[in-house]
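BUG-346 | component: ligand-complex export | severity: low

The export step for magnesium ion jobs runs without errors, but we want the raw record kept on the ticket for reference. Input record follows.
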Amino acid sequence: MPTEVAPTDSEQSTRETIARAVALLRAGEIVALPTETVYGLASDALDPAAVEKIFAAKERPHFDPLIVHVPSKTALHEVAEVPEDTAKTVVQLVETFWPGPLTLLLPKRPVVPDIVTSGLPTVAVRQCEHPVFHRILKHFGGPVAAPSANRFGKLSPTSAAQVLEQLDGRLPLVVDGGACARGLESTIVRVRAAAPKPVIEVLRPGPVTEVELKKFGRVEFAGRNAEVEDSAPEAPGMLAVHYAPRTPLRLLSAPSEFVAEPGRRYALLSYRGQEKDGYLGLHPWDSVEVLSPGSGRLAEAGIRLFHLLGRLDRGGYDEIVAEPVPERGIGRAILEKLRKASCGPR
Ligand code: AMP
Ligand code: MG
């Protein structure tokens, strides 16, 4: 199937693109859409045959459930139940972070097909902030299922070109909404009633950070379960094999860990690109990419992570060596992606 890329560079082209995307969704097709996190591969969430096309295009195993995107805050209640004992906190989170990169895990309503949730009694829901995505959902009028628009286990795309690299010919349309503003997948949480404070359990770290969530309850991080590689994930996005570049990647925790083998070509993925961090001068690197060349801000590193990993992966090096980033704020999510990239298949 030929894949077209539809522009959103003027109001006129945006309107035409939105109409085409909505028509395809209504016809039970899949469409790649820009979100503020990464590009998503969307279909009508309530049509199992349409959702099946997402799994087929991504080659995603059916035990890995999808995120459901709703067109409004109130539409949450059409796909999920909000248990009374956590309702206050759930409403606070929705009011504070939606539309935005926070996904809530809640008991699902029967209208959500089992294929979306992998047969689980819960559904992962969020309202996306991207203006084009938002307008498409408003026109479509219902929820869409939309995981990241990559092949299973590969790097998440943060531009229309990166979607094409992985999925060209497997879908009719990619809506080009430019580069993603956040660059990392949404934070996924589950709320649990507890005294004296509710517990907000982070199942997948992302752009909404611990500091932001702390105002609404005690924040806990679900353990990194490397053992779930081949079985249903207890928590979203927690499969051990994920984000695997073809090139072997090694995440260092200190400069002293690096020993070069003669004859191998090494590329460095640096955090700030500064000599004083101790990694730049370790070796005559064949290539260096810097996650945050400006101010060393973690948000900038998050936006550029998948883009630069993809570029290094195409460079044909024997190994990508990654510097650690500080494990705070969105740095937690960046480190998690780098750890997963370092244990994937080659
Ligand atoms: P993606 O959008 O590709 O990052 O995928 C969304 C992630 O959410 C997947 O990795 C799933 O494992 C996870 N997920 C979605 N729904 C559920 C659910 N009901 N229970 C547990 N995990 C979920
Ligand atoms: Mg994904």
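Assignee comment: Attached the raw record above. The chain has two domains: 4-175, 249-341.
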